Amino acid sequence: xxxxxxxxxxxxEEKMYYNVLYDFPSNSIDNFYEMLEDxxxxxxxxxxxxxxxxxxxxxxxxxxxxxxxxxxxxFGKIGFDGSWNGITGYYIxxxxxxxxxxxxxxxxxxxxQIEIIGNIHE
Length: 122
Known about the structure:
Blueprint: E1 6-10, E2 15-18, H1 32-37, E3 41-50, E4 56-58, E5 61-64, E6 71-78, E7 87-94, E8 102-104, E9 115-119
Antiparallel strand pairs: 1-2, 1-3, 3-4, 5-6, 5-9, 6-7, 7-8
């Protein structure tokens, strides 16, 4: 069973907080639902996978490998016919804004062959 974890990027403090499902970064936040509703925080979920260095992979992480030069871990619908009626899951979105190509995170390559090189916030 996949472990459910979330992290949160604090826009004001420009700081990442981990395990925010239970540990809140501020005394003004009493529960996870309040954090979800607060526009100051960007919440990202753990994919349940680790990179080649054993680092947990979250939405918003920037990764690279020989198979994927550089990309961003993204969650959404993955369609193959242009209609976006495919399955929903994690995938790597091509780093280049103009290119809409993607590779599915779980099915097209081994996560242990990718390396996290940062995230979209830092």
